[in-house]
Design goal:
27 strands, 13% helix, Pectate Lyase C-like, alpha/beta, 351 residues, 8-stranded parallel β-sheet
Length: 351
């Protein structure tokens, strides 16, 4: 009898330990961070340390990718500062640059106007369709005073996640193509985001860098009525840079100004800080404003009041969710058809 009891106890103990181990490792697996670095098989690696098997230049890693590749070519850009101009040519499709974090992985150069034309100042130029960048800082370090582009994107179905864009005038040139920016930080002064892409910025922070001057967050350049382009700022924060938070009263900013007469910008469900002037939008000398499409919907914060906004024919405050559905990720950039393949989380509709 005693022996039988001991056997039963032993079996019970074994079963109990098995259940504990199974549950323990199951929970451990479920709680494991979904790290990009542990789930991706990189095709190439860039490192400032010149370790065996890696490239020291981002351009060299891009050159190693196949031309007109149909699947993503993942390039791990390790922590470091890469001083180079980077071009993702049109025939280098589906390139994915993955950094170790925007705070530690940076690509930077310092070209500016008038030494270079505006498009030539860009630190990084992306032409190849299907481009992805994650956890990288793109900087133009030329400083204030003239156009100096950090990134120029003319890639269809391109996406940026957890990236930072550092510049002053003309920081981010979203030139054309369907583009998606998620959880990015964008710093600048004049026409911080400009171009004629069909782009959605979701959950991004847009920062004004300098006081005592008019700051314009967007300068969208739609020219052709038959082609739907524009910028959508959705669930974003529009404020002063951290170093200016204690002196925000010196910052005077506008949501945008019309680079061309069909300029299209929608700001919705976003935080607008006190730096936004009551008029909200700034005219561009010589540009008409009756054909612009400037819309605001359900914004909040001390700069969100619309009672003193511009009285342009092309400006309107939207009050119905049905009126802004055309500007959501799913409809404006057909995001449901291609963003899932990037692995970037997003909101298809409204928040």
């Amino acid at each position: 009898m005693a022996k039988a009891i001991l056997v039963a106890l032993f079996i019970t103990l074994v079963i109990g330990m098995s259940l504990y181990i199974g549950i323990h490792f199951q929970h451990k697996h479920e709680n494991k961070p979904n790290s990009t670095h542990t789930t991706l098989a990189y095709n190439a690696t860039v490192s400032t340390t010149a370790k065996l098997g890696s490239y020291t230049k981002i351009m060299d890693a891009i050159a190693s990718a196949p031309t007109y590749g149909e699947s993503k070519y993942y390039i791990h850009v390790e922590a470091g500062v890469y001083v180079e101009n980077v071009y993702v040519w049109k025939n280098k499709t589906n390139i994915a640059l993955i950094g170790d974090g925007a705070e530690v992985t940076m690509v930077t150069m310092n070209r500016k106007v008038p030494v270079f034309d505006t498009i030539e100042t860009a630190t990084v130029v992306v032409e190849g369709n299907g481009f992805i960048a994650k956890f990288i800082t793109f900087e133009n370090s030329a400083g204030d005073g003239a156009q100096a582009v950090a990134l120029m994107a003319m890639s269809d179905n391109s996406a940026f996640y957890g990236c930072t864009f550092l510049g002053y005038q003309d920081t981010l040139y979203a030139k054309y193509g369907r583009q998606f920016y998620k959880n990015c930080n964008i710093y600048g002064t004049v026409d911080i985001v400009f171009g004629d892409a069909t782009a959605v910025f979701q959950g991004c922070n847009l920062y004004a860098r300098l006081p005592n001057r008019p700051i314009t967050f967007t300068a969208e350049g739609r020219e052709i009525a038959q082609i739907i382009t524009g910028f959508v700022l959705h669930n974003c924060s529009i404020t002063a840079a951290p170093e200016l938070q204690s002196s925000k009263s010196l910052v005077h900013a506008y949501l945008g100004r019309p680079w061309f007469e069909l300029s299209t910008v929608i700001v919705m469900q976003s935080f607008l800080d006190s730096i936004i002037e009551p008029a909200g939008w700034l005219d561009w000398p010589g540009r008409q404003t009756d054909k612009v499409t400037y819309r605001e919907y359900a914004n909040w914060g001390p700069g969100s009041a619309t009672r003193a906004r511009v009285e342009w024919l092309g400006y309107a405050v939207l009050n119905k969710s049905t009126d802004v559905m055309p500007f959501t990720v799913s409809e404006f950039i057909s995001g449901d058809s291609w963003i899932p393949d990037t692995g970037i989380p997003y909101n298809s509709g409204l928040m």
